[in-house]
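thoughts on both lines:
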Amino acid sequence: MEILKIVLTVIQVLGALFLIAVVLLQSGKSAGLSGAIAGGADTFLSKNKAKGVDAKLAKMTKWVAIGFMILTLILCLI
């Protein structure tokens, strides 16, 4: 039982690091004025591509966070 707890703890630490990386890869929602000034050269296709990547990262963040919470609850119950 102790080995299972150690393995789950290692998986949880790796999951936490992955969750941090996924959150940091997302673009900020407050691109506001700086995006309007510097982003004049963006085309329609590049904006849609960025939204697609952000949508995938947001979905991945949600699932990784759910997995992290479930793993934390399992570790608390062991």
DSSP finds three helices and no strands in the chain. Residues 25 and 57 are 8 Å apart (CA to CA). The first helix runs from residue 2 to 25. Helices lie at 2-25, 32-38, 44-77.
